Amino acid sequence: MINNFVFSINTALPIFLVMLVGYGLKKGRVIDDAFVKKANILVFYVALPIKLFYDVSQTDFLEAFDRQLLSFLIVATMAGIVLSWLVGKATTQNDAQLGAFIHGSFRGNFIYIGFSLIENITGSLHPKVPIIAAVMVPLYNIIGVLILSYTATASNTGDRVRKTVWSIFRNPMVLSIGAGIIASLLSLRIPVFMARTMGYFSALTVPLALIAIGASFVISQSLQSIKPSLAASMLKLVILPLAAVMAAFYWGFRGEDLILVYILFGVPTATTSYIMTVALKGDSEMAANIIMITTALSVITMTLFVFAFKSMGII
Predict the structure, then answer these.
(1) How far apart, in whole angstroms, are the C-alpha atoms of residue 121 and residue 68?
(2) Is 252 exposed, middle or buried (0-12, 13-18, 19+ CB in 10 A)?
Protein backbone atom coordinates (compact mmCIF):
# COMPACT_ATOMS: atom_id res chain seq x y z
CA MET A 1 0.00 0.00 0.00
CA ILE A 2 2.88 2.36 0.75
CA ASN A 3 4.25 1.80 -2.75
CA ASN A 4 0.85 2.54 -4.27
CA PHE A 5 0.60 5.80 -2.33
CA VAL A 6 4.12 6.83 -3.34
CA PHE A 7 3.24 6.12 -6.97
CA SER A 8 0.12 8.29 -6.63
CA ILE A 9 2.06 11.16 -5.09
CA ASN A 10 4.72 10.93 -7.79
CA THR A 11 2.01 11.05 -10.44
CA ALA A 12 -0.14 13.99 -9.31
CA LEU A 13 2.15 16.16 -7.19
CA PRO A 14 4.64 17.20 -9.93
CA ILE A 15 1.80 18.77 -11.92
CA PHE A 16 0.80 20.92 -8.97
CA LEU A 17 4.41 21.76 -8.09
CA VAL A 18 5.09 23.11 -11.58
CA MET A 19 1.98 25.30 -11.26
CA LEU A 20 3.22 26.36 -7.82
CA VAL A 21 6.54 27.37 -9.38
CA GLY A 22 4.60 29.53 -11.83
CA TYR A 23 2.77 31.17 -8.94
CA GLY A 24 6.04 31.76 -7.07
CA LEU A 25 7.72 33.25 -10.14
CA LYS A 26 4.81 35.66 -10.54
CA LYS A 27 4.79 36.64 -6.86
CA GLY A 28 8.57 37.10 -6.98
CA ARG A 29 8.17 39.31 -10.07
CA VAL A 30 10.42 37.08 -12.11
CA ILE A 31 7.58 36.92 -14.61
CA ASP A 32 4.63 39.27 -15.04
CA ASP A 33 1.20 39.41 -16.66
CA ALA A 34 2.73 40.22 -20.03
CA PHE A 35 4.85 37.05 -19.89
CA VAL A 36 1.83 34.94 -18.88
CA LYS A 37 -0.21 36.36 -21.75
CA LYS A 38 2.55 35.66 -24.27
CA ALA A 39 3.16 32.19 -22.81
CA ASN A 40 -0.52 31.35 -23.23
CA ILE A 41 -0.40 32.58 -26.82
CA LEU A 42 2.74 30.53 -27.51
CA VAL A 43 1.19 27.38 -26.06
CA PHE A 44 -2.25 27.85 -27.61
CA TYR A 45 -1.21 28.93 -31.09
CA VAL A 46 2.18 27.25 -31.59
CA ALA A 47 3.40 24.55 -29.19
CA LEU A 48 0.13 22.75 -28.48
CA PRO A 49 -1.08 22.62 -32.12
CA ILE A 50 2.31 21.20 -33.18
CA LYS A 51 2.15 18.60 -30.40
CA LEU A 52 -1.41 17.60 -31.28
CA PHE A 53 -0.66 17.39 -34.99
CA TYR A 54 2.39 15.23 -34.40
CA ASP A 55 0.69 12.93 -31.88
CA VAL A 56 -2.37 12.40 -34.08
CA SER A 57 -0.38 12.02 -37.31
CA GLN A 58 1.74 9.28 -35.74
CA THR A 59 -1.35 7.41 -34.53
CA ASP A 60 -3.31 4.83 -36.49
CA PHE A 61 -6.51 6.88 -36.48
CA LEU A 62 -8.83 4.06 -37.50
CA GLU A 63 -7.41 1.79 -34.80
CA ALA A 64 -7.41 4.50 -32.11
CA PHE A 65 -10.95 5.67 -32.90
CA ASP A 66 -13.03 3.94 -30.23
CA ARG A 67 -16.65 4.68 -31.08
CA GLN A 68 -17.97 2.93 -27.98
CA LEU A 69 -15.74 4.90 -25.60
CA LEU A 70 -16.46 8.21 -27.34
CA SER A 71 -20.20 7.55 -27.24
CA PHE A 72 -19.99 6.84 -23.53
CA LEU A 73 -17.99 10.03 -22.89
CA ILE A 74 -20.52 12.15 -24.75
CA VAL A 75 -23.51 10.62 -22.94
CA ALA A 76 -21.77 10.88 -19.55
CA THR A 77 -20.88 14.51 -20.24
CA MET A 78 -24.51 15.36 -21.01
CA ALA A 79 -25.66 13.57 -17.85
CA GLY A 80 -23.07 15.51 -15.84
CA ILE A 81 -24.35 18.78 -17.26
CA VAL A 82 -27.91 17.93 -16.21
CA LEU A 83 -26.74 17.10 -12.67
CA SER A 84 -24.67 20.30 -12.53
CA TRP A 85 -27.70 22.28 -13.64
CA LEU A 86 -29.87 20.81 -10.87
CA VAL A 87 -27.25 21.41 -8.18
CA GLY A 88 -26.52 24.88 -9.53
CA LYS A 89 -30.18 25.89 -9.41
CA ALA A 90 -30.23 25.04 -5.71
CA THR A 91 -26.90 26.74 -4.97
CA THR A 92 -26.50 29.87 -7.10
CA GLN A 93 -28.27 33.20 -6.73
CA ASN A 94 -28.93 34.19 -10.35
CA ASP A 95 -28.74 32.97 -13.95
CA ALA A 96 -25.30 34.44 -14.58
CA GLN A 97 -23.88 32.50 -11.65
CA LEU A 98 -25.73 29.39 -12.80
CA GLY A 99 -24.08 29.51 -16.23
CA ALA A 100 -20.60 29.83 -14.73
CA PHE A 101 -21.41 27.09 -12.20
CA ILE A 102 -22.48 24.58 -14.86
CA HIS A 103 -19.61 25.42 -17.20
CA GLY A 104 -17.04 25.16 -14.42
CA SER A 105 -18.50 21.87 -13.17
CA PHE A 106 -18.27 19.88 -16.39
CA ARG A 107 -15.39 21.41 -18.38
CA GLY A 108 -12.02 20.03 -17.31
CA ASN A 109 -8.50 21.07 -18.26
CA PHE A 110 -8.08 17.90 -20.31
CA ILE A 111 -5.51 19.28 -22.74
CA TYR A 112 -2.94 20.74 -20.33
CA ILE A 113 -3.35 18.95 -17.01
CA GLY A 114 -5.03 15.84 -18.43
CA PHE A 115 -2.27 15.18 -20.94
CA SER A 116 0.35 15.61 -18.24
CA LEU A 117 -1.43 13.23 -15.85
CA ILE A 118 -1.82 10.57 -18.55
CA GLU A 119 1.88 10.75 -19.40
CA ASN A 120 2.80 10.49 -15.70
CA ILE A 121 0.62 7.40 -15.27
CA THR A 122 1.41 5.48 -18.45
CA GLY A 123 4.77 6.97 -19.47
CA SER A 124 3.43 8.21 -22.82
CA LEU A 125 0.38 9.77 -24.40
CA HIS A 126 -2.20 7.07 -25.07
CA PRO A 127 -3.11 6.83 -28.80
CA LYS A 128 -6.79 7.37 -28.00
CA VAL A 129 -6.15 10.66 -26.20
CA PRO A 130 -5.76 12.98 -29.23
CA ILE A 131 -8.86 11.41 -30.79
CA ILE A 132 -10.84 12.01 -27.60
CA ALA A 133 -9.59 15.61 -27.60
CA ALA A 134 -10.62 16.01 -31.25
CA VAL A 135 -14.21 15.12 -30.33
CA MET A 136 -14.63 16.46 -26.80
CA VAL A 137 -12.92 19.87 -27.07
CA PRO A 138 -15.24 21.16 -29.84
CA LEU A 139 -18.19 19.63 -27.98
CA TYR A 140 -17.18 21.46 -24.79
CA ASN A 141 -16.97 24.71 -26.73
CA ILE A 142 -20.39 24.32 -28.33
CA ILE A 143 -22.11 23.33 -25.07
CA GLY A 144 -20.32 26.11 -23.19
CA VAL A 145 -21.57 28.71 -25.70
CA LEU A 146 -25.13 27.43 -25.47
CA ILE A 147 -25.18 27.37 -21.66
CA LEU A 148 -23.53 30.75 -21.17
CA SER A 149 -25.71 32.35 -23.84
CA TYR A 150 -28.89 30.98 -22.29
CA THR A 151 -27.95 32.19 -18.80
CA ALA A 152 -26.23 35.47 -19.79
CA THR A 153 -27.44 38.65 -18.10
CA ALA A 154 -26.99 40.69 -21.27
CA SER A 155 -30.01 40.63 -23.57
CA ASN A 156 -28.20 40.95 -26.89
CA THR A 157 -25.79 38.03 -27.08
CA GLY A 158 -26.32 37.11 -30.72
CA ASP A 159 -23.12 38.68 -32.04
CA ARG A 160 -21.02 37.19 -29.25
CA VAL A 161 -22.54 33.75 -29.84
CA ARG A 162 -21.83 33.89 -33.57
CA LYS A 163 -18.26 35.06 -33.00
CA THR A 164 -17.64 32.38 -30.38
CA VAL A 165 -19.14 29.61 -32.53
CA TRP A 166 -17.05 30.76 -35.49
CA SER A 167 -13.96 30.74 -33.28
CA ILE A 168 -14.57 27.04 -32.57
CA PHE A 169 -13.93 26.22 -36.21
CA ARG A 170 -10.83 28.44 -36.27
CA ASN A 171 -9.49 26.97 -33.03
CA PRO A 172 -5.81 25.97 -33.53
CA MET A 173 -6.36 22.75 -31.56
CA VAL A 174 -9.27 21.71 -33.76
CA LEU A 175 -7.39 22.59 -36.96
CA SER A 176 -4.19 20.81 -35.91
CA ILE A 177 -6.05 17.67 -34.86
CA GLY A 178 -7.95 17.71 -38.16
CA ALA A 179 -4.70 18.04 -40.09
CA GLY A 180 -3.19 15.23 -38.00
CA ILE A 181 -6.12 12.94 -38.79
CA ILE A 182 -5.66 13.58 -42.52
CA ALA A 183 -1.92 12.88 -42.22
CA SER A 184 -2.65 9.67 -40.31
CA LEU A 185 -5.18 8.44 -42.87
CA LEU A 186 -2.73 9.20 -45.69
CA SER A 187 0.10 7.47 -43.78
CA LEU A 188 2.17 10.62 -44.23
CA ARG A 189 5.82 10.11 -43.25
CA ILE A 190 7.34 13.04 -41.41
CA PRO A 191 11.07 13.65 -42.10
CA VAL A 192 13.37 13.06 -39.14
CA PHE A 193 14.44 16.70 -38.85
CA MET A 194 10.76 17.81 -38.75
CA ALA A 195 9.88 15.11 -36.22
CA ARG A 196 12.69 16.24 -33.90
CA THR A 197 11.68 19.88 -34.29
CA MET A 198 8.10 19.01 -33.37
CA GLY A 199 9.45 16.99 -30.46
CA TYR A 200 11.04 20.12 -28.99
CA PHE A 201 7.71 21.94 -29.12
CA SER A 202 5.93 18.93 -27.66
CA ALA A 203 8.34 18.94 -24.71
CA LEU A 204 7.73 22.68 -24.23
CA THR A 205 3.93 22.52 -24.19
CA VAL A 206 2.98 21.05 -20.82
CA PRO A 207 5.53 22.72 -18.49
CA LEU A 208 4.99 26.16 -20.03
CA ALA A 209 1.22 25.75 -19.86
CA LEU A 210 1.37 24.67 -16.19
CA ILE A 211 3.64 27.60 -15.30
CA ALA A 212 1.22 30.00 -16.98
CA ILE A 213 -1.73 28.47 -15.10
CA GLY A 214 0.09 28.82 -11.79
CA ALA A 215 1.09 32.40 -12.54
CA SER A 216 -2.57 33.22 -13.17
CA PHE A 217 -3.63 32.28 -9.63
CA VAL A 218 -5.22 35.03 -7.55
CA ILE A 219 -5.65 33.49 -4.11
CA SER A 220 -7.86 36.24 -2.68
CA GLN A 221 -10.58 35.61 -5.28
CA SER A 222 -11.06 32.02 -4.17
CA LEU A 223 -12.54 33.24 -0.86
CA GLN A 224 -15.47 34.98 -2.58
CA SER A 225 -18.75 33.20 -3.38
CA ILE A 226 -17.34 30.29 -1.42
CA LYS A 227 -20.50 28.16 -1.12
CA PRO A 228 -21.40 27.74 -4.81
CA SER A 229 -17.73 27.59 -5.79
CA LEU A 230 -17.08 24.74 -3.37
CA ALA A 231 -20.23 22.96 -4.56
CA ALA A 232 -19.07 23.21 -8.19
CA SER A 233 -15.59 22.05 -7.17
CA MET A 234 -17.01 19.02 -5.37
CA LEU A 235 -18.96 18.12 -8.49
CA LYS A 236 -15.95 18.61 -10.74
CA LEU A 237 -13.34 16.78 -8.70
CA VAL A 238 -15.28 14.05 -6.88
CA ILE A 239 -18.93 13.43 -7.77
CA LEU A 240 -18.82 13.57 -11.57
CA PRO A 241 -15.57 11.61 -12.04
CA LEU A 242 -16.62 8.99 -9.49
CA ALA A 243 -20.03 8.56 -11.14
CA ALA A 244 -18.45 8.42 -14.60
CA VAL A 245 -15.89 5.79 -13.61
CA MET A 246 -18.52 3.64 -11.89
CA ALA A 247 -20.80 3.89 -14.92
CA ALA A 248 -17.92 3.08 -17.26
CA PHE A 249 -17.04 0.01 -15.20
CA TYR A 250 -20.66 -1.12 -15.26
CA TRP A 251 -20.71 -0.74 -19.06
CA GLY A 252 -17.68 -2.98 -19.38
CA PHE A 253 -14.75 -0.58 -19.74
CA ARG A 254 -11.55 -1.73 -18.07
CA GLY A 255 -7.88 -0.83 -17.68
CA GLU A 256 -6.63 2.27 -19.48
CA ASP A 257 -10.13 3.14 -20.72
CA LEU A 258 -11.18 3.68 -17.09
CA ILE A 259 -8.15 5.92 -16.56
CA LEU A 260 -9.10 7.98 -19.61
CA VAL A 261 -12.67 8.32 -18.34
CA TYR A 262 -11.45 9.52 -14.96
CA ILE A 263 -8.97 12.02 -16.41
CA LEU A 264 -11.55 13.54 -18.75
CA PHE A 265 -13.96 14.11 -15.87
CA GLY A 266 -11.62 14.48 -12.88
CA VAL A 267 -9.07 17.13 -13.87
CA PRO A 268 -9.62 20.69 -12.57
CA THR A 269 -11.71 23.23 -14.44
CA ALA A 270 -10.23 24.57 -17.66
CA THR A 271 -9.08 28.19 -17.77
CA THR A 272 -10.97 28.46 -21.06
CA SER A 273 -14.20 28.50 -19.06
CA TYR A 274 -13.22 31.90 -17.63
CA ILE A 275 -12.38 33.33 -21.06
CA MET A 276 -15.71 32.20 -22.52
CA THR A 277 -17.65 33.43 -19.49
CA VAL A 278 -16.16 36.90 -19.86
CA ALA A 279 -16.84 36.93 -23.61
CA LEU A 280 -20.51 36.00 -23.11
CA LYS A 281 -21.07 38.37 -20.16
CA GLY A 282 -21.53 35.68 -17.53
CA ASP A 283 -20.38 35.74 -13.90
CA SER A 284 -16.62 35.94 -14.41
CA GLU A 285 -15.95 36.05 -10.66
CA MET A 286 -17.70 32.72 -10.18
CA ALA A 287 -15.79 31.24 -13.12
CA ALA A 288 -12.45 32.40 -11.68
CA ASN A 289 -13.30 31.07 -8.22
CA ILE A 290 -14.09 27.60 -9.53
CA ILE A 291 -10.84 27.45 -11.52
CA MET A 292 -8.76 28.49 -8.51
CA ILE A 293 -10.40 26.09 -6.06
CA THR A 294 -10.46 23.04 -8.35
CA THR A 295 -6.85 23.59 -9.35
CA ALA A 296 -5.73 23.88 -5.72
CA LEU A 297 -7.72 20.85 -4.51
CA SER A 298 -7.00 18.65 -7.52
CA VAL A 299 -3.60 17.62 -6.19
CA ILE A 300 -5.45 15.84 -3.36
CA THR A 301 -8.28 14.35 -5.42
CA MET A 302 -6.06 13.22 -8.31
CA THR A 303 -3.65 11.59 -5.88
CA LEU A 304 -6.48 9.72 -4.15
CA PHE A 305 -8.06 8.54 -7.40
CA VAL A 306 -4.71 7.37 -8.79
CA PHE A 307 -4.03 5.60 -5.47
CA ALA A 308 -7.41 3.84 -5.73
CA PHE A 309 -6.73 2.78 -9.33
CA LYS A 310 -3.28 1.52 -8.37
CA SER A 311 -4.59 -0.37 -5.36
CA MET A 312 -7.29 -2.07 -7.48
CA GLY A 313 -4.73 -3.09 -10.10
CA ILE A 314 -6.22 -0.90 -12.84
CA ILE A 315 -2.88 0.84 -13.32
Answers:
(1) 23
(2) exposed
Cβ–Cβ under 8 Å, residues 161 and 110:
no
How many distinct structural domains can be found in the chain?
Answer: 1
Write the CATH number for 275: 1.20.1530.20
* Partner residues linked to 269 by β-bridges: 108
Range of the domain at 26: 2-311
Q: What is the pTM of this model?
A: 0.79
Dump pLDDT digits (tens) for 130-173.
778 878 887 887 788 788 877 765 545 555 556 656 666 667 77
Instruction: Kindly report, residue by residue over 255-276, the tens digit of the pLDDT.
Output: 888 999 999 999 999 877 776 7
Q: What is the DSSP string of the chain?
A: -HHHHHHHHHHHHHHHHHHHHHHHHHHTTSS-HHHHHHHHHHIIIIIHHHHHHHHHHTS-HHHH--HHHHHHHHHHHHHHHHHHHHHHHHH-SSHHHHHHHHHHHH-B-IIIIIHHHHHHHHSS--THHHHHHHHHHHHHHHHHHHHHHHH-SSS--HHHHHHHHHHHHT-HHHHHHHHHHHHHHTTPPPPHHHHHHHHHHHHHHHHHHHHHHHHT--GGGGGSSHHHHHHHHHIIIIIHHHHHHHHHHHTT--THHHHHHHHHHHSPBPTHHHHHHHHTT--HHHHHHHHHHHHHHHHHHHHHHHHHHHHTT--
